[in-house]
Specification:
- By secondary structure, this protein is of the alpha+beta class.
- Among the domains are: 141 residues, Beta Barrel (Elongation Factor Tu (Ef-tu), domain 3); 111 residues, Arc Repressor Mutant, subunit A (Orthogonal Bundle); 54 residues, DNA polymerase, domain 1, CATH 1.10.150.570.
- Helices cover 35% and strands 18% of the residues.
- It has 19 helices and 22 strands.
- It is globular.
Length: 624
């Protein structure tokens, strides 16, 4: 065999799978090295994709030629659009998936991707010459050479799992840790820190009393993640269930805190603030009488369920005793306990905005080794790192997404500019341009860019143009169509909104908050001639048009603000600038600028500790 490649991707989690697929798709010879080919894109925690802000990320990945959305659609057992009661900037798709099928489908995709080879082994050492990566050496002593390497090691670098006082080396239950890379990179100047995450017990569904819980069914319409699908028909859809902890549960958990590795100091890594363990919840929110738990099915061919909200590293007997006090779980039988895991990560301020490291040329980081948490955040980084490694290999301009272009842009900018002191999780509140970064328009924002770079195919561009054409036709119709009082007032009264006394344009009616565009179109007979009316994409088109009509003022205002900020991101800062010469800048400002080395003035403005006066001095200096 020839072990010379253009790109090496280490790790086949969500980041590694996206990185390997997109790099090979771009035509460069790629190898994906993984410890276990049967666990590609393994859902190590809950069996779901998407959620608040995370669903937007999956839509963006799909718009850019990634596979997470398509794999989700092919394996989902339930779909829900979260936050429908709020504005469209907050709508977030989420899907429960068959965990085994999800991993199997990713493997099928990768095994049938041209230019991609998969190698099962453990990467233990990087080949580095003159601050340039040259390849990877594995545990079997196999030497792979390449000018670009993408590390996506997840929680495996020096991973240690905790259940009470019991500890075990491993990157995940049933999988070994990876050693060597952290120690090597530390010698090359990288800052290596520790983080902690965890997961909950898995339980046998046959031992659950679902009658004592609230059933949560999925949506019946709009069920898909990928823009390439009109809808997904889910066979034998599975429900989730909701139950709650209580004071009896909390008392048992409190009694076990003396055995908790979190509260005895044995775990040093910082855990996720927004997805805390159950023991952290009862300590942090001591006065709260109950906590919501979601009982989530793991798939079609299994009785296994995941308890979302009950992550724990307490001793097994404490976990079981507490679970048996939860309504519906009184006779619970578990398959495996919850556990915490500590692992190495690299402070992401050591990365460029392309996700290439600042210290080693050709070396990219993606996923949890950058201090993030979540499948979606990892997949997004993998897509960008893999694409940029391939583009660099081909001598082409790399992709840098702005904060007004994508949640992925917000994610990467936050990481490289602010760094992390706890596992980073994406929320809609992190994006200042939420009304621009909606889940419905990721294709409009990103597909043309992706097509121009070779990431997205011609079929994606065709579907985008078809969508835009139908939305434009519908809005033009509403702008030109007049409706009379006799034609519409009965309908308006039924919607409890004021009647009209003279003819008005249909768009005026559609802009009312009480009116759904779909209902309005059903009242107008001539709307049946519109292209979208007979299209299988009708729901998608009317929804997009309705958002544009109802929120046009907000959208225009936000675009104006974004354009002003974008000008600062076009002001480049030379890489060799010596901040120590800028005595007028505050000491903290100089230290932060020297450490992070922002690429643009815009990025510099987002560094904590760099004041507006520091920015003014920096701009004047660059002007000179």
């Amino acid at each position: 065999m020839d072990f010379k490649y253009d790109i090496i991707v280490v790790g086949a989690g969500h980041a590694g799978c996206e990185a390997a697929h997109i790099a090979a798709h771009l035509g460069v010879k790629t190898v994906l090295i993984t410890m276990d080919m049967t666990k590609m894109a393994q859902m190590s925690c809950n069996p779901a994709m998407g959620g608040i802000a995370k669903g937007q990320i999956i839509r963006e990945i799909d718009a850019m030629g990634g596979m997470s959305g398509k794999v989700t659609d092919r394996t989902m057992i339930q779909f829900r659009m979260l936050n429908r009661s709020k504005g469209p900037a907050m709508w977030s798709p989420r899907a429960q998936c068959d965990r085994v099928l999800f991993s199997r489908e990713w493997r099928r995709v990768l095994e049938n991707t041209d230019n991609l080879h998969i190698w099962q082994d453990l990467a233990t050492e990087l080949i580095i010459e003159d601050k340039k990566v040259k390849g990877v050496i594995t545990a079997f002593g196999t030497r792979f050479t390449a000018d670009y390497v993408v590390l996506t090691n997840g929680t495996f670098l020096n991973g240690v799992m905790h259940v009470g006082f019991e500890t075990q080396s491993g990157g995940r239950s049933g999988d070994a840790s990876a050693y060597g890379l952290s120690e090597q990179l530390k010698k090359h100047g990288f800052t290596v820190d520790r983080m902690k995450t965890g997961t909950s017990a898995r339980v046998d569904g046959r031992s659950i009393n679902f009658d004592a819980m609230a059933e949560q069914k999925g949506d019946m319409e709009g069920r898909c993640f990928s823009y390439s699908h009109d809808k997904v028909d889910i066979r034998d859809e599975k429900s989730c269930y909701i139950t709650y902890t209580n004071q009896n549960v909390h008392e048992i958990l409190k009694g076990g805190l003396e055995y908790s590795p979190l509260y005895t100091g044995r775990i040093k890594g910082v855990g996720p603030r927004y997805c805390p363990s159950i023991e952290t919840k009862i300590v942090t929110f001591e006065g709260k009488e109950l906590h919501q738990l979601f009982i989530e099915p793991e798939g079609w061919g299994t009785n296994e369920f995941y308890i979302n909200g009950f992550s724990s590293s307490l001793p097994l007997e404490v976990q079981v005793e507490a679970l048996k006090k939860v309504p519906g779980l009184e006779n619970i039988v578990i398959h495996r306990p919850g556990y915490a895991i500590e692992y190495d990560f690299f402070q992401p301020t050591q990365l460029k905005n392309t996700l290439e490291t600042k210290y080693i040329d050709g070396l990219f980081f993606a996923g949890q080794i950058n201090g993030t948490t979540g499948y979606e955040e990892a997949a997004a980084q993998g897509l960008i790192a893999g694409a940029n490694a391939a583009l660099a290999c081909k001598g082409e301009e790399q992709i840098i997404l702005g904060r007004d272009q994508a949640y992925i842009g917000v994610l990467i900018d936050d990481l490289i500019t602010k760094g992390v002191d706890e596992p980073y999780r994406m929320f809609t509140s992190r994006a200042e341009y939420r009304i621009l970064l909606r889940q419905d328009n990721a294709d409009e924002r990103l597909t043309r860019l992706a097509y121009g770079k070779g990431l997205a195919g011609a079929d994606s561009l065709t579907r985008l143009e078809e969508k835009e054409s139908m939305v434009a036709e519908l809005i033009t119709y509403l702008d030109e169509r007049s409706v009379s009082p006799s034609e519409i007032n009965t309908f308006l009264e039924s919607k409890e909104t004021s009647v009209i006394h003279q003819k008005v344009k249909a768009r005026t009616i559609a802009s009312r908050p009480q009116i759904f565009l779909e209902d309005l179109l059903n009242q107008l007979d001539d709307s049946k001639t519109l292209t979208c009316f007979l299209s299988p994409r009708r729901r998608e088109i009317t929804e997009s048009a309705e958002i544009i009509i109802k929120y046009s003022g907000y959208i225009s205002r936000e675009k104006g603000v974004a354009e002003k900020i974008r000008k600062l991101d076009k002001l480049k800062i030379p890489e060799d600038i010596d901040y120590s010469e800028l005595a007028s800048i505050s000491t903290e400002g100089r230290q932060k600028l020297k450490r992070i080395k922002p690429a643009t003035i815009g990025q510099a403005t987002r560094i904590s500790g760099v004041s507006s006066s520091d920015i003014s001095i920096l701009i004047m200096y660059l002007g000179r």
